[in-house]
Amino acid sequence: MEKRLIPSPRSLDDVQIKSRELIGRGWGKLERFVFRHRRFDGEWSDEVTRDLYTIGEVSMILPYDPALDAVLLVEQFRTCGLYWNEATWLFEAIAGIIDPGETPPEVARREAGEEANIDIARPVPIATVYSSPGGYGERTHMYAGRADLGHAGGLHGLAHEHEDIRAVVVPLDEAHAACFDGRIRDAKTILMIQWLATNKSQIV
Q: Among this protein's residues, is 92 annotated catalytic?
């Protein structure tokens, strides 16, 4: 049994990209990659074809008020459920796409203002993750941050970005419970809430 998680030593020298083709573009882009990669036994794999959809790089922030022991989440319509014939208005942490020249903490603070009209003084890093690595290229930087949520909430969002956002302030205990009873269905937000539940002393 492995006692430690040690990543295998790999670099782009262990991937041979045979072709990369843009096959669709809209809000994001859909690319088709044909490649081989080094196998764990040292040999090269057969050629593999995979389609990868990428919108961009994202920054997320979970605002936390230690005085209230509460977090702020936003609710909005997401297209993901249309594939499954579901109406998916989802609770999530605040998020936004990182534009060229911006840093992830800068975007976290900007989006907190746009989506909830609150200020985050110091975003605390949680993790950087790939949300669906099999076919989605989005890379997400996740943060938590202290905020005054005493008067937060209400409707927000930028009209020119078609945003219709409801901000809600809930006790951290309730948000944590919602990760297990189906009210929160976004995997990244669940991860962030569970991190905060055990690390909230870091939010100062």
A: no
42: left (phi over 0), alpha (psi -120 to 50) or beta: left
Question: pTM of the prediction?
Answer: 0.91
Break the chain down into helix, strand, coil percent, rounded to 5.
25, 40, 35
Does 57-202 carry CATH code 3.90.79.10? yes
Q: Tell me the per-residue pLDDT of 133-164, one tens digit each, with 9 for 90 and over.
A: 999 999 999 999 999 999 999 998 777 777 78
Which among 106, 161, 163, 174 is annotated as catalytic?
161
Break the chain into its structural domains and give their ranges.
Answer: 12-54, 57-202
Give residues with Cβ within 8 angstroms of 11, minimum separation 6: none
Cα 154 to Cα 134: distance, rounded to the nearest angstrom:
36
Backbone angles phi, psi at 151, to 5 degrees: -125, 20
Cβ–Cβ under 8 Å, residues 136 and 52: yes
**In angstroms, rounded to a whole number, what is the distance separating the alpha carbons of residues 193 and 204?**
17
- Cβ–Cβ under 8 Å, residues 126 and 194: no
In sequence order, what are the residues at sequence separation of 6 or more whose Cβ sits closer than 8 angstroms to the Cβ of residue 186? Answer: 90, 91, 92, 93
DSSP string, 21-47: EEEEESSSEEEEEEEEEB-TTSSBPPP
Which DSSP state fits 26?
A: S
